[in-house]
Write a structure and sequence with these properties.
about 1200 residues, alpha+beta, five-stranded mixed sheet, four-stranded antiparallel sheet, 65 strands, about 30% strand, elongated, HELP, WD40_rpt
Length: about 1200
């Protein structure tokens, strides 16, 4: 044979055709003996089709023979007699109606015993259909059958229960969408038991009595056995055997059944008279339930006739086109005739009622009918809904019910059925009635800051910076509780920066600014990098006052964007000058008279990729007796320079640098430097000590190194800020003057403190102005680490001479005070990027974070780390169990997911591991326990979600596969049955948590216990302008559901009203983090909010503060349609329309002047103030309100100008400011 069809295939097809032609007979050699299942008596017709579902079949409808599976196709005849050949004998099976040639026919005629009727012709059972090429019935056919819900008999008053999705969007119509199944209740009937089956049997017998024997009549719409109802019926069957009825068995003796038929007819008549069954010659049932059943019967009939080459829709359209006159629609009678061809009984009255259900009267477009009838309900719902694109522009545009397509979400979003734009959209147009107040910042920049960035100020407070916030920490005083801020252990902040701070300095002298004296070490300077909107700048501020308590800023020095930022700052010994090293390629060194904002000098510091200069140190002994000249050092990558001032015409020349030589010593990276006191009283020479990368101390005299001292170990290699790998060595260095502990007076003893990568602080005695190896003022101080796998590396040092303690900043992001035999941690932090945060479900002051390989539990009331543990892998996700899972009834589980797919579960109380598994290869991105704590869901970068059974030792029970990219987040429904997830390619999917299967129906009315996804209708408007769907990294809806917090790539934490459906929705924005804020979460009682930064290693703790509702006043203005100019030539929406007389509109600009604008119309009676006006700026009227608007940053706006609410930044703690 030639062609693509093989011999075996041809043989099978030939055998199938012979079987079809043989009808119920079995020819020797054609096929194996046994009972066959299939459309055309096991032949080609319907061999690949799906079995009839029998949905909506009424067992009490006249003409349904036996109420069995045969009725499911609407073709009359008992289901068993239609679906498979049966032995001769017995009766009551009904006739096979509407048998068509060429594969449309159904097996007709042939009765079977009463026992077989009860076993095989059962209402609501699907016949199991296998390909016709299979042989005899196998074990698959013997599986127990599953009963489907029965429909109530016609004529009984029923209550139609429509699903929410069965109506058109917006409640504009209550017409049920076609193809959506209806649940039915029959009040008062109870369970339909044997009585209903008896009725069905009676109807079957009556139908058999009315039918013509021999292949015609019978069943619903018995149209005969020929092509589309030819009374002649199909050709006689060949090769029929004894005991197996042929296709057309002819007239069968019915004498033995006449009594039974008469009794059945009498019973049916009595039931019809009593009103229980609408049958016989009564009026047809035209209820919605009956029409839904009729649609199901048409679907089943088409399903039984379709083949692999022709689907149900193509088959139906083919039949409609056979009677089409070119108009594309059919009439009632034509539709009834076509239903008869399918074997479905449908009179003209029923056709008319069905047309009305589809929205048509006399003619029905059959293409529309076929589409709606055979389209899935979810797709039909989506197609029939109105569509809009993107978030709503304003409240008026939010009056929409339907489907929303957004470029940031690949799947369409749907408005909830309870969507009320007058309430929900108006809320989205207002600022939230809550605000965030920054309470505490966990962490210190021990990562990429290259210069000294930790100091004691004049009040004994620790001054440092983290990310974009300058922090002033007040230590805890004795007698106070650990969680009481009144006893110390608190912070205030300088919030004048808009991007990351990179350098810090304290003024060592007393200065006068604006007529006010500031004591030594009270004024701080911080420098930030260039931002998107402006170049870098330096802020000089009073460290004793925070931005939440007053206005601490004293001066601001602005620079060009080309300077990029600053790596080091330093005040001169007298506080007059401020030197700064920029991070441009030349590392320009600026010297400013900061009080006059006057640049005195600039010069190149070091060429190369930044940062090449690591620090700056002024000579503190300049100007003292002995004529020590003013000078400062800059040092960094394999260089150290001394800057001095030349003589100018006025004695104030330019600052110039000289390179210091290491001589015979190796030149290395210089990480720290200090000036020693003059070697003799009244001397003018000061030695310079530099800390090197390998832990050595180089001593310079003049411009040449004279010796080196091995002080510290070189420590581990690390990646430097400019990207190269090197030893950090000796980073911390500070010269301190000792004081008497009793009197507080100076003792004249000077100590050089050095801290290195070995976690040791050495105290050198340099009172005579020289550094001698082995000469120490006190024993070394060793730092203890809370992590067993890593030690502390000193990043910065300072000394409090009053208390005799050393202030230390380390690489683990913590700040501590160290003295002999004591070590007190002031501020805890993280030692790497913080990836995720989770709150305890019952304790609002307990949270967990994961950073690198460390799991940390925090006590937010005590503002301290509670406990931490090393998990052994790079952690990326964390979650608390929603309920206690241990025997004590208090201990929760903490689940941690890793970057390589590891999943570990720990006890909350001791962080003891209780379970470990690995079902992912690419990593876990999110973890969530279900609300009932029965399951744990793990979102992975493998594009799937794993579901674990908690009670079965975290056994994996299902996997949700369907995403095409990394799954970013997951949320559980309130009942724990549904899961929603979003992915990196902006796809939002919904899952059945039990089976892991995707749910194609929109979940717009599903209630979710949390909303942490970046996609979805409630967070439609969170995206900033120009966003591509990746700008927002974390989302969290509050427990009450009234606000939504987001964390984005711009370092902002934003607070919106929920839902957020308006484009550029009003919000409160809070700066402080570096770029890429990784997570944000509300506590279980919404009293706290915590955000974690990835790059800055920090965690910010905010208090959520309720604001008093704003009183808009009795005369709240609203927009009206009116004239925008005195002449009346332009009209539009405005708050102050002009009074223009249409008859004399041209006279408005005459000498008399323009008429004054009309006062704004009052709001409609009963309209809430929050709904009467969307723009937030308009809440401030005139008079005092205008002053308040100006104070909040609103400028003058024209009356007819469309007011827009821009993104408003709010300084944490500045109550009510915008």
């Amino acid at each position: 044979m030639s062609g693509t069809m093989g011999d075996s295939t041809r043989a099978r097809i030939a055998g199938a055709i012979r079987s079809a032609n043989a009808g119920g007979g079995v020819a020797a050699g054609d096929r194996a003996p046994g009972t066959y299942v299939g459309g055309y008596a096991g032949g080609m017709g319907g061999s690949w089709s799906k079995a009839a579902t029998n949905r909506g079949i009424d067992p009490m409808r006249g003409g349904d023979a036996g109420g069995g599976a045969g009725a499911a196709a609407g073709a009359g005849g008992g289901g068993a007699s239609r679906m498979r050949p049966l032995p001769a004998g017995g009766g009551g099976g009904g006739s096979g109606g509407a048998a068509a040639n060429g594969g449309f026919g159904l097996l007709g005629g042939g009765g079977h015993s009463q026992q077989q009727q009860q076993q095989q012709a059962v209402v609501g059972q699907r016949e199991r259909v296998r390909p016709g090429s299979h042989g005899a019935k196998n074990a698959w056919d013997e599986l127990p059958r599953k009963d489907l819900p029965r429909a109530p008999p016609h004529g009984v008053t029923t209550k139609q229960i429509k699903p929410v999705s069965a109506t058109m969007a917006g409640g504009k119509t209550t017409r049920p969408l076609m193809g959506i199944g209806m649940d039915l209740k029959a009040p008062g009937l109870g369970q339909m038991g044997s009585g209903v089956e008896a009725v069905g049997g009676a109807l079957a017998a009556a139908a058999a009595a009315r039918a013509k024997l021999g292949g015609g009549g019978g069943g619903r719409g018995g149209m005969g056995g020929g092509t589309f109802g030819d009374p002649a019926g199909p050709p006689p069957a060949r090769n029929s055997r004894a005991g197996v009825p042929s296709y057309n068995p002819g007239r069968v003796a019915f004498a033995e059944q006449e009594g039974r038929v008469a009794a059945a007819g009498q019973q049916m008549a009595e039931m019809s008279m009593s009103g229980i069954v609408g049958g016989g010659g009564g009026a047809p049932d035209l209820s919605d339930a009956s029409m839904a059943m009729l649609e199901d019967q048409i679907r089943d009939a088409l399903r039984n006739r379709r083949t692999v080459y022709e689907d149900s829709k193509s088959l139906l359209l083919k039949m409609f086109k056979s009677v089409d006159d070119g108009s594309g629609d059919v009439s009632w009678s034509e539709f009834s005739a076509l239903c008869g061809q399918l074997g479905v009984e449908c009179g003209v009255a029923e056709a008319q009622r069905l047309f009305e259900r589809f929205g048509y009267k006399d003619r029905l477009p059959y293409s529309r009918f076929a589409h709606v009838l055979l389209t899935q309900p979810s797709r039909q719902l989506a197609e029939e809904m109105p569509i809009r694109h993107g978030p709503f522009k304003d409240v008026m545009a939010a009056n929409f019910h339907g489907k929303i397509k957004d470029k940031r979400c690949r799947k369409p979003l749907y408005t909830p059925t309870s969507w009320d734009p007058q309430v929900d959209a108006a809320r989205s147009a207002e600022l939230p009635n809550k605000r965030l107040v920054l309470n505490f910042v966990y962490g210190y920049n021990g990562k990429d800051a290259t210069s000294q960035n930790l100091f004691y100020n004049s009040s004994g407070q620790a001054v440092y910076f983290t990310a974009g916030v300058a922090v002033v920490y007040t230590r805890r005083t004795g007698g106070g509780s650990s969680g009481s801020s009144s006893s110390g252990h608190s912070q205030h902040f300088f919030l004048g920066h808009t991007d990351d701070i990179k350098a810090l300095a304290l003024c060592p002298a007393e200065v006068d600014v604006g007529g006010r004296k500031y004591p030594p070490r009270s004024i701080a300077a911080t420098a930030q990098v260039s931002s998107h909107d402006e170049g870098p700048f330096i802020c000089v501020w009073d460290s004793r006052v925070g931005s939440q308590q007053g206005e601490p800023q004293l001066a601001r020095l602005s620079f060009m964007k080309e300077d990029r930022g600053f790596s080091a700052l330093g005040f001169s010994h007298d506080g007059v000058h401020l030197a700064a090293v920029a991070t441009d390629n030349a590392h320009t060194v600026y010297v400013y008279d900061w009080r006059r904002n006057r640049l005195e000098s600039s010069g190149k510091g070091q060429m190369g990729d930044p940062p090449q200069v690591y620090g700056l140190e002024w000579n503190p002994y300049a100007g003292r007796p002995g004529s020590v000249p003013p000078a400062f050092l800059t040092f960094g990558k394999k260089h150290i320079k001394m800057w001095t001032r030349g003589d100018g015409p006025t004695g104030q020349g330019q600052w110039s640098a000289k390179q210091l030589s290491t001589g015979r010593l190796d030149m290395q990276n210089v990480h720290s430097a200090a000036w020693l006191p003059p070697r003799q009283e009244g001397g003018a020479e000061c030695l310079v000590v530099a800390g090197m990368a390998d832990g050595q101390l180089y001593v310079f005299k003049g411009i040449t190194a004279i010796k080196s001292i091995q002080a510290h170990a070189k420590g581990p290699q690390s990646i430097q800020p400019d990207g190269h790998v090197a030893y950090t060595g000796l980073r911390g260095m500070r010269l301190a003057e000792m004081r008497d502990a009793a009197t507080g007076g100076a003792t004249g003893k000077r100590v050089l403190l050095t801290g290195g990568s070995d976690g040791t602080i050495l105290r050198w005695d340099v009172s005579d102005g020289s550094l001698v190896e082995g000469r120490f003022a006190a024993p070394p101080l060793s730092l203890r680490s809370s992590l067993p796998d890593r030690g502390h590396i000193v990043r910065a040092l300072d000394y409090d001479p009053v208390r005799g303690v050393v202030l230390v900043g380390t690489n683990q992001g913590g700040v501590m005070e160290v003295a002999d035999n004591t070590q007190t941690v002031l501020v805890y932090g993280h030692s790497d990027d913080v990836w995720a945060v989770a709150f305890h479900p019952l304790l609002p002051t307990r949270a967990a974070t994961v950073s690198d390989k460390v799991l940390t539990l925090w006590d937010l009331e005590a503002r301290a780390m509670e406990r931490c543990g090393v998990v052994g892998f790079a952690a990326r996700a964390v979650a608390f169990s929603s309920r206690p899972l241990e025997g004590d009834g208090r201990t929760h589980h903490v689940a941690v997911g890793g970057a390589k797919g590891d999943l570990m579960v720990f006890l909350e109380s001791t962080l003891q591991p209780v379970h470990k598994t690995k079902d992912s290869r690419e990593g876990i991105t999110d973890l969530k326990y279900s609300p009932d704590c029965r399951h744990l869901a793990a979102a992975t970068a493998d594009t799937w979600i794993d579901i674990y059974n908690v009670s079965k030792s975290y056994q994996r029970v299902s996997r949700c596969s369907g995403h095409s990219s990394t799954v970013r987040g997951i949320d559980w429904s309130t009942d724990g049955s549904v899961l929603q997830s979003d992915s990196a390619d902006l796809e939002l999917l919904v899952w059945n948590a039990r089976t892991g299967k995707q749910i194609p129906i929109p979940s717009r009315d599903t209630s979710f216990s949390t909303h942490t996804l970046r996609l979805g209708f409630p967070v439609l408007g969170i995206w900033p302008d120009g966003s591509d769907g990746t700008d927002v990294n974390s989302v969290c809806r509050s427990a009450r559901g009234d606000v939504v917090a987001t964390a984005d790539d711009s370092g902002l934490v934003k607070l919106f009203n929920c839902p957020v459906v308006l484009e550029d929705a009003p919000h409160r924005a809070y700066r402080g983090h570096s770029s890429h804020v990784m997570g944000v979460r509300f506590s279980c009682d919404d009293s706290l909010l915590v955000s974690v930064g990835g790059y800055d290693w920090a965690m910010f703790q905010f208090s959520v503060v309720e604001l008093q509702p704003m009183d808009h006043g009795p005369n709240l203005p609203t927009k009206v349609w009116g004239a925008l100019d005195p002449e009346g030539r332009s009209y539009g929406w405005t708050y102050t329309p002009y009074d223009v007389n249409p008859a004399s509109s041209g006279a408005g600009g005459g000498p008399g002047g323009a008429p004054p604008p009309l006062p704004a119309a009052p709001p409609p009676e009963g309209t809430p103030p929050s709904h009467a006006m969307a723009p937030a700026a308009l809440r401030y009227g005139s008079g005092d309100g205008a002053a308040e608007a100006a104070a909040h940053g609103f400028g003058a706006v024209a009356d007819d100008e469309e007011l827009q609410v821009d993104e408003e930044e709010i300084d944490p703690g500045d109550e009510g400011s915008i």
